[in-house]
Automatic annotation (TrEMBL):
Swiss-Prot/TrEMBL keywords: Hydrolase
Species annotation: Desulfofarcimen acetoxidans (strain ATCC 49208 / DSM 771 / KCTC 5769 / VKM B-1644 / 5575) (Desulfotomaculum acetoxidans)
GO BP annotation list: DNA repair
One GO CC annotation: cytosol
EC numbers for this chain: 3.6.1.1
Molecular-function GO term, any one: inorganic diphosphate phosphatase activity
Transmembrane segments: none
EC top class, as a word: hydrolase
Short name of any one Pfam family annotated for the protein: HAD_2
Annotated protein name in UniProt: HAD-superfamily hydrolase, subfamily IA, variant 3
Keyword Secreted assigned: no
Phylogenetic classification of the source organism: Bacteria, Bacillati, Bacillota, Clostridia, Eubacteriales
Keyword Hydrolase part of the UniProt annotation: yes
InterPro entries xref list: HAD-like_hydrolase_sf (IPR050155), HAD-like_sf (IPR036412), HAD-SF_hydro_IA (IPR006439), HAD_2 (IPR041492), HAD_sf (IPR023214), PGP-like_dom2 (IPR023198)
């Protein structure tokens, strides 16, 4: 069955938020005296913030969560940038008749703000955030929720993301998966999770679809 619906991850796929994420975690870890350990926390990008804070801050997870939100807000708009070519590619996919959806582990309030100030809000029919399912990525629930909202069968959809959390979530949900190499994970890391497709540029995505 032909693909009708294209689901995208947000951070590291559509927007380059790594500078913001790294700076925010560095500030939080320094204030809470959590060892930086060569940025080990950055490998968890794609998981919900509460889960990351529990892993690295333990009993002080609530303090970690609150501080991160505070510091992130301070420089959110300044350090968040959309990847070049993203808006043009999404517009072209829409013109070709595809329905676009967003599946992210980010909180709803931030997602809604980012979609507006980056100009992405015009392209997505639905969005699923960490607030919309009990079990986050890499479990299949967020992708299942997106399929439900789109009234789509798994074989009619593909999920495109930049991390192994995205790939596993899509695979477990029964949809095609594609990795992009311009985000958080390296190409060889994505290959280990055997995505159906691997893209290095937006032009390659447009060539495929």
């Amino acid at each position: 069955m032909a693909i009708k619906n294209i689901l995208f991850d947000l951070d590291g796929t559509l927007i380059n938020s790594l500078p913001l994420i790294e700076k925010t975690f560095r500030r939080v870890f320094a204030e809470m005296q959590i060892p930086w350990n060569n940025g080990e926390v950055l490998k968890t990008i794609g998981l919900p913030l509460k889960q990351i804070c529990e892993q690295f801050a333990g009993e002080k997870k609530d303090d970690c969560f609150a501080l991160y939100q505070l510091y992130q807000r301070e420089e959110h708009a300044l350090l968040t940038r959309i990847y070049p070519g993203t808006l043009e590619a999404l517009g072209e996919l829409q013109n070709r008749g595809y329905t676009l959806g967003l599946v992210t582990s980010k909180r709803r309030v931030l997602v809604d703000e980012e979609l507006i100030f980056t100009g992405l809000s015009d392209f997505f029919t639905i969005s699923v955030t960490v607030n919309d399912t009990v079990n986050p990525k890499p479990e299949p629930d967020p992708v299942w929720r997106a399929l439900e909202l789109l009234k789509s069968r798994p074989e009619e959809a593909i999920y495109i993301g930049d991390s192994w959390y995205d790939l596993l979530s899509g695979q477990r949900a029964g949809v095609m998966t594609a990795g992009v190499t311009w985000g958080m994970a390296k190409r060889e890391e994505l290959i280990e999770y055997v995505p159906d497709l691997l893209f290095d540029t937006w032009d390659q995505i447009l060539e495929y679809f």
